[in-house]
Structures are given as C-alpha cells and as structure tokens.
Amino acid sequence: MKRILLFVVTNLAVMLVLGIAASLLGVNRFLTANGLNLGALLGFAALMGFGGAIISLLISKPMAKWSTKAQVINGSADPTHRWIVGAVENFAQKAGIRMPEVAIYDGEPNAFATGAFKNSALVAVSTGLLHSMSREEVEAVIGHEVAHVANGDMVTMALIQGVMNTFVVFLSRVIGYFVDKVVLRNNNEGPGIGYYVTTIVLDIVLGVLAAVIVAWFSRQREYRADAGAAQLMGRKQPMINALARLGGLDPGELPKSVANMGISSRPGGMMALLSSHPPLEDRIRACNRRSERRGPAGAPFGAVGPQGLTRGIRPIRKNSSFGRMPLRLAMRFDSPKKAVMAPMSQASSSLKPWARSAAKSASSMVCDAVQTFIAKSSIARWRGVMSALR
C-alpha cells in the first residue's frame, strides 16, 4: 500500500511541476482563436513527455532506496557483504564503469539496477535471492545488472519513454481537435466536449499502444543484459543456471520505479504484451544459442556473435555518421513492426473489423515514428542530450 501511495504522490508531484513549467514557458496555450498552434503543442508534448521521463530517471535511485528500504553495504565488514561488493567491483572494472553503490533489501528473489548515470548507479540484490541461489548464480545475476548499467539502459529506456509520451500527447490533441471541429462541427471559438472526450480516450488508447512498444524495447534489453552477464562471467552456464533457478521461484513485486530493471517478472496472457521481461524459457534458449566470444570493440555488452542475443541490432561503427554514441541509440531493428504488430493482431482478433484496422494503423504509425526518430536524429542533437545528462 505504501508503494502504491508513493507512486501516486510522486506522479502527481511530477505533473504539478510540469504543469507549472508549461505555464511559465507558455507552451500550454496551443489552443488559440485561430485554431491549433502546432508549434506550441509540440513544445507542450515534448515537455510533458520527456519532462516526466527525465524527472523519473533523476529521482530513480533515491526512490528505489526508500521504497525497498535498501541498505547500502559498500565498506561493510560482513563477509557476505564484502563478497557481493567485490563481485560488483570486479564486473564494473571489466565493463569500464565506476563502482556503483551496492545494496541489499528484504524481499523475494530478485535484483535491480537503477540510477540516472552509469558512473553513479545502484545495484541491489534481495535477501531472497541470496538465500535461494548458489554464489555462482548470484554473481551471474549481479553481472546481468552491471551489464544494464554499462549499456546505459536506464537512460535509453527513459528517452524511448519520452519519445512515446510525446507522440501520445501530440497525436491525441491533434486528433481531438479534428474530431471536435470537423466531425462534430463545433463552430464555437474554444474547444467543445468532443475535443476533451476524444483527447482523454486517445490518451488512454495510444498510451497502451506506446506501453506495448516500450515493453518490446525493454525485452530486447533483457536479452542483451543476459549476454553481458555471460560475457562478464567468462562463460554462459552460470547465467543459464540462474535463469533456470528463477523459473522455480516467485520473483515478488518490485516498486514501479525499478520494476523494469529487475532480473525477472511473471506476466501472463495479454499482460505479456506489457511485460518488461521476456519469458525465462526464451531467455535460456537465447543464452544457449549465443557465442561466448566478445563482441566487436566498442559494441554494447551482449552484442556478441552473428547468431547471438542481439541479432537484429547493428553495432555502432567508429566512422558512422552517428559517431560512437554512448547510449547506442542508432540501432537497426530487423522488424520492430513485426514484434509489435504480431501480438497486437492476436490481441485485437475479437474486435470489430473497423476497430481492428484502426488499432493496426495506429500501431504501425507509432512504430514508424519511433524508428524514424531513432534512425534519423542528427548527431548534434544526440550529443547535446548526452552532454546534458552526463
């Protein structure tokens, strides 16, 4: 109950801050007597979309500590604590990042990594994980979390979430205005009830579609972290054993702020579309398929082997037009549409034809927009974002 209350209060506080910022910047005045000011609307959408994602990222570390009551153990004299800290330090050195904070919290078998910056991250493991696994398996889980940090996954997911939020806010208001003025023929100077109802409904519908896409990105990130753990361990079997062990355990529930950075979750049915983690069986199969050799120089942790876990993600080349971007956002996905549209087709099979067609069109449009944004964004823009976040 406390975690739910904290989640609600935090989001209300974020929305209040963003609302004040939008008023001060004037971007919330996109509805004018002359129609819809698309420039102001885009500014409003970007502020609400990226603002919420970035604020959540910046407060993720202290919020995770507070919500899980995690105890930082760096410098502890306890033998078990020293072993955990030593494992994190060893992996951090191999991954080329600074030593993260290490913490233990009471809970079911799970672990997570969080933090706005890869060189000041937090890696936490639960007491349930320590009691349920062998030392080698625990080290594999720790390697998985360190790989998340080394790959900059926390920042990457925040930026992707920001992109999706921006599209949801922008499109819902444009379509709402069109429905109000064109379909319902509201000739009044201000927006009518059609605008507000349509905007609310589309915020929900497009928000769900956006969550499906973000979850797909998150699941690919898990495969890469599994590969990174095997790479840090020097062999894949400990990670396979850890995943197999997790298959027989209840991972419990992590706070919302760090749930997508845990080691495991147990979604089922339609909720699998919104899951941040792939099924454990799929992750084990992927680990068994992968090569244990190290990937190309400069590639993200886990980018190993032509048939490995990151099949479909092209490593960044030194002489590419994007440069060597730390977050590896210039990625080529074999079929992002297929990954989203296939389950969407199954999920919408019970809908009427016109509703099913609309859902497919909306999903396709959002997929195209995200892929274009990632592939075509200029190097100057990304370097500016990276400089601001470092």
Unreliable runs: 292-298, 304-337, 376-390
Gyration radius, to the nearest Å? 22 Å
Please state how the strands of the largest beta sheet are arranged side by side: 3-4-6-5
| Total discrete domains | 1
Number of strands: 6
Number of helices: 13
Shape: elongated
How would you summarize this macromolecular structure in one to three sentences?
With 390 residues, this protein is mainly alpha-helical. It has 13 helices and six strands.
Question: How does the SSE layout of this entry go?
Answer:
Blueprint: H1 2-25, E1 31-32, E2 35-36, H2 38-58, H3 60-68, E3 71-72, H4 79-95, E4 101-105, E5 111-114, E6 122-126, H5 127-132, H6 135-150, H7 153-183, H8 193-233, H9 237-247, H10 280-289, H11 336-347, H12 353-376, H13 379-389
Parallel strand pairs: 4-6
Antiparallel strand pairs: 1-2, 3-4, 5-6
Give your account of this protein's structure.
The chain has 390 residues and is mostly helical. The protein has one domain. It is 60% helix and 5% strand. The protein has 13 helices and six strands. The strands form two sheets. Strands 3-4-6-5 form a four-stranded mixed β-sheet, with helices on both faces. Strands 1-2 form a two-stranded antiparallel sheet. A hairpin with a 2-residue loop joins strand 1 (31-32) and strand 2. The longest helix is centred in the middle third of the chain and has 41 residues, at 193-233. It starts with a helix and ends with a helix. 41% of the residues are buried. Residues 292-298, 304-337 and 376-390 have low confidence and may be disordered.
